[in-house]
Design goal:
Layout lengths: L12 E4 L5 H13 L4 E6 L14 E5 L5 H15 L4 E4 L5 E2 L8 H29 L7 E6 L12 H18 L8 E8 L11 E2 L12 H9 L2 H4 L5 H13 L1 H4 L4 E4 L1 H20 L1 H6 L5 H7 L4
Parallel strand pairs: 1-2, 1-4, 2-3, 4-6, 5-8, 6-7, 7-9
Helix pairs in contact: 1-7, 2-3, 3-4
Amino acid sequence: MTTTPFSLPPSPVWFITGCSSGIGRSLAHLISTVHPTHRLVATARNLSSLSYLPQSNNTLPLPLDVSSPTSITTAITTTLSHFGNIDILVNNAGYMLLGDTESSLTPAGTALAHEQLETNFWGPASLTLHALKQMRKKTGNGGVILNVASMGGRLTVPGAAYYHASKFALEGFTDALAKEIRPEWNVKLGIIEPGVVKTAFVTGVRRLEDCEGYEGGDTPRKVMEGFMEDEEKQQLWSEPGKLAEEIVRVVLEVEERGLAMRTVLGPDAWGLLRTELGRQMEELEQGKERAVRVGKEGQLEEMVKAGFI
């Protein structure tokens, strides 16, 4: 089947989650002011937090709780009724659950852990599938789906196990789903991996209760918390406006350059991921002999032929 070259329409419809602050707010503001011909669906849990948006026929603020399937369905239905389609989905909403992971054994801790996965993984996964479903039916026009993960989707810090679980899950889901998409659909799926950003993200952190046995200010988790809460160090973090500009650039360049599976944003993210991937490669090489001796001749080649890589 012949594939029509991908191109965005002159007035594409953006659907962005988490627009109350940070990257989402900067992105929504940028689109509504610098790209006024683009149509925008800006969402947040509290509709009042979107009052900064200009009143325009091209802008539709909507309440959305990404942890609620009903809220997701309502927002998608309203968008399709209002604008007719979605051309660009940016799954940006999320937060960090921080604390001693062992404390999630309590009923309250278990509930917090489940809420983390609902917001950071299940919500974006559902929105991705809703968007994909209507994008693939647009006779080759397709669309772009960007899932904002984090450098924390490929490396970890102490005290944020469930946050990392959610971001690793989102990356794996996105990567695997991209391999299911038929070329003629023209749906481009990618991951954004920011480093640390000067947003309300830190103040929006939710916390597990302290756990017996992890007392003291020098535990790995407490040291990491100290870094995150240091206002002087936060001045070195990336500006959300710059990330928003880069995300728009990524989308607008898809027609000419295609879309990378992973787009790293921030010198910290790039450097730390380079170091982490280098460490993993060293471990992989060191374990080659053990790995090979438990297998069979031709095993790797058949897996490659089957499309595992």
